[in-house]
Amino acid sequence: MDELVALCKRRGFIFQSNEVYGGLQGVYDFGPLGVELKNNLKNAWWESMVYENDDIEGLDSSILTNPLVLKYSGHESTFSDPMVDCKSCQKRFRADQVPPECKKEDLTEPRQFNLMFKTNVGPIDDGSSFAYLRPETAQQIFTNFKNVIDSTSKQIPFGIAQIGKAFRNEITPRNFIFRVREFEQMELEYFVEPGNDEQSLDEWVQKRLNWWKDQGVPIEKIELYNVPTDELAHYSKKTVDLMYMFPHGLEELEGIANRTDFDLASHSKKQDELNITSNVEKNKHSNSKMAVQDKKGDWIVPYVIEPSAGVERGILAVLNEAFVKEDLGVTLSKKVKNSLQKLGLGRVILENTGNIGKGYRRHDEIGTPMCITVDFESIEDSSVTIRDRDSMDQVRVKISELAEIYKNKIK
Ligand code: GAP
Questions:
Q1: pTM attached to this predicted model
Q2: CA 96/CA 85 separation, integer angstroms
Q3: How far is the CA of 124 from the centre of ligand 1 (A)?
Q4: What is the pLDDT at residue 329?
């Protein structure tokens, strides 16, 4: 991971955000190459969802979110992580991410910490008028359900896709861009008739695996994880996580959830008329009926299948797959240097400089009798180039002959 992080900075992919002022934990900036890579990944997703499927429409909704949306979605009451304090090191951790140095007896009892960011809206800053920064792009897809149906005449099954920023006040952001406080999600909410939900989930898992393969993340490197009931999000009947072996370990790249009718029903008025199957809070504020009528005129609230992928995690996976450490002969150069050094004919120095011609001239000036260049071909054919100071001749010789040539030259 450290090498990948260094390369990302060196080559302009990803920078620590606000670095000139010491940074801001859990946020990153994408540089000239990073932004292109990110756009490529997002465009590939958008094309595969919106352009290649006539039953999927796009959306770009606001980040600032009316608190009522996140009250009825269940986020105000349940979108939290258990947090503990360590009395010894005075630091805070997510309860399942306490480092081994902290002793159990030094930890406080876990208490719930809500992950949503709040911000003030309008000119009065007394807390009376606030909005949340959305913690997932999904909710505004649900609240726009009727708008999209009314404006596109879509019938179920159909989907709404959105890419955009999401914000979570993670207790312990970590592992480079894997867990951050500001990130982007690529989310599809696919609305199906209740009863067709389980098959649809299976189909989306396959489609998403194939899409990741097309992005250079092989299916063999992804494990499917059926999230156990006690770990499921409050809205989910079943979730399959695509787990990828990141540089720091096997973790979630994307989640594909069966959100049932929970969200549409939660945001709906006149819930009593809608044959809702989920356990939802009575909605006293909504002015929209988030349901469709079947041929008999009965109201049904569609079930939702949601493939939800993080852009940053996608970038990390793609970079990780593309990252190859090439041995440019350094190991071989070390071997050559050591074998010549052992002959006891004086100091042999190893240099790893870019311009070989300039290097030769520098060594001419200081009197180095001969230079030996190890290059890409040396690894293939076990030969090196010798360059003589006095004649300036360059000859290619086998590494096995090198000791003899060197002894003859120096003696
Ligand atoms: N709408 C469903 C939802 O938000 P989630 O599993 O909480 O579900 C979906 O998030 C995806 O968003 C994850 O699989 C991951 O790729 C990404 N994600 C979530 N939290 C993240 C974070 N703190 N930093 C980076 N990516 C994150």
A1: 0.84
A2: 12
A3: 33
A4: 66
